[in-house]
């Protein structure tokens, strides 16, 4: 068990297989098609479907199809019957969303500077934000499956804690999952924000064939979430994707790991700010300020670059090339065919950086004669971490997984 907490699939493996098939059939699906698609017996399908209808998770619709034959009865997911809450904990801002079973955002909220640097304050602020969100949504509490928490890595998945959190440097380990569950009375799952973002993309894409992609998260740090053969990879301790210390062939400021060539430092807000101050984009006596002010400055730098300021474009372009070179090596190791960029910094960078990243990744990809690498922006915007948190809950409750196969049916 790597993930520490499991919400428990809604009603076992067969039910998860059937719910998954109904969820993916947006036009509705008949019982006979469910038999074909799942390989389960008509009797099992019938029993499980009756239970799903009784529980309000699925409804029956009479549908008239064109051509001869009587109208058929199709089953459809009752998308608002259950909901999931996602929280993305970022050093600057806490983002919350509530998703229905279709992965659609039905309520959202943002709060600045969560918790004022104290673990108790942090969990109390999260719990209060959850209560506010539930009250504002008007959703009955019993319909909420749970909370998914997307936190900056590294995380201690077994303890449900963040380790050396950037928003609370004086604390080495801050347990969040259990206190948040205690305060809200709801089950809580936790994962790294980069992995949660990858889960969100997997839910949003709805592709039938197994996917292979890397989600690159650009925020206060640089991290990656990995999906191979349709499965989200986590690693031995759920800390996969720490790509910020990949070496680059240019000197960048000293990293906290002790090296002078870490790609993460090329993207570091302090590094970018200093370069901007040296070239006169910001006044030479300007200061980086707190995380909030630093973020604003970097957004300004990106905007100037996009608007045509040559010095700003050179700074941002250099950072994009270094990130592209690193991501190309990740792509070479994993042989994915898609890279998705997102995170709080991405919106400002997208226009300028996307062509540079595409070029760097595809020219350095060793197997480019076999297939290209699609380089795209996340369609989920700045909420991708929070949506990912909620998708952890949907995934845990609804998706049939390999672990379910081991348990049998
Ligand atoms: Zn480093």
TrEMBL record:
Highest taxon of source? Bacteria
TM stretches of this protein = none
What SUPFAM superfamilies has UniProt attached to this entry?
Answer: Actin-like ATPase domain (SSF53067), Winged helix' DNA-binding domain (SSF46785)
Supply the PROSITE patterns for this chain: ROK
Which residue range or ranges hold the HTH marR-type domain?
A: 14-60
Coiled-coil stretches: none
Q: CDD domains annotated for this entry?
A: HTH_ARSR (cd00090)
Q: Which family does it belong to?
A: Belongs to the ROK (NagC/XylR) family.
Q: Output this protein's name.
A: ROK family transcriptional regulator
Natural source organism:
Arthrobacter sulfonylureivorans
């Amino acid at each position: 068990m790597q993930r520490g907490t499991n919400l428990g699939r809604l009603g076992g493996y067969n039910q998860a297989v059937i719910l998954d098939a109904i969820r993916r059939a947006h036009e509705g699906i008949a019982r006979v098609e469910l038999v074909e698609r799942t390989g389960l017996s008509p009797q099992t399908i019938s029993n499980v479907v009756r239970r799903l209808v009784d529980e309000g998770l699925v409804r029956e619709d009479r549908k008239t199809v064109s051509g001869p034959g009587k109208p058929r009865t199709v089953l459809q997911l009752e998308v608002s019957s259950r909901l999931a809450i996602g929280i993305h904990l970022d050093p600057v801002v806490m983002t919350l969303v509530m998703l229905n079973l279709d992965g659609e955002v039905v309520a959202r909220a943002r709060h600045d500077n969560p918790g004022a640097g104290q673990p108790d304050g942090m969990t109390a602020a999260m719990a209060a934000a959850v209560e506010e969100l539930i009250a504002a949504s008007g959703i009955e509490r019993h319909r909420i499956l749970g909370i998914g928490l997307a936190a900056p890595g590294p995380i201690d998945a077994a303890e449900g804690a963040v380790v050396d959190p950037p928003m609370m440097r004086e604390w080495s380990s801050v347990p969040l999952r259990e206190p948040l569950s205690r305060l809200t009375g709801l089950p809580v799952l936790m994962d790294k924000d980069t992995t949660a973002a990858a889960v969100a993309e997997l839910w949003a894409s709805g592709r039938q064939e197994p996917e292979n992609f890397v989600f690159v998260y650009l925020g206060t740090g640089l991290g990656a979430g990995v999906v191979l053969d349709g499965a989200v990879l986590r690693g031995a301790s759920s800390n996969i994707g720490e790509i910020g210390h990949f070496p680059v062939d240019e000197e960048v400021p000293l990293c906290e790991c002790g090296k002078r060539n870490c790609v993460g430092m090329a993207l570091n807000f302090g590094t970018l700010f200093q370069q901007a101050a040296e070239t006169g984009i910001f006044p030479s006596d300007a200061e980086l300020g707190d995380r909030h002010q630093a973020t604003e400055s970097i957004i300004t730098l990106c905007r100037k670059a996009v608007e045509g300021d040559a010095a700003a474009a050179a700074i941002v372009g250099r950072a994009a090339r270094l990130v592209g070179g690193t991501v190309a090596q990740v792509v070479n190791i994993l042989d994915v065919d898609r890279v998705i960029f997102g995170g709080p910094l991405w919106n400002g960078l997208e226009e300028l950086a996307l062509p540079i990243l595409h070029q760097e990744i595809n020219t350095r990809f060793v197997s480019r004669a076999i297939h290209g690498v699609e380089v795209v922006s996340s369609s989920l915007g700045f909420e991708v971490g929070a949506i990912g948190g909620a998708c952890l809950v949907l995934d845990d409750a609804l998706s049939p997984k390999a672990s379910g196969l081991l348990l049998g049916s």
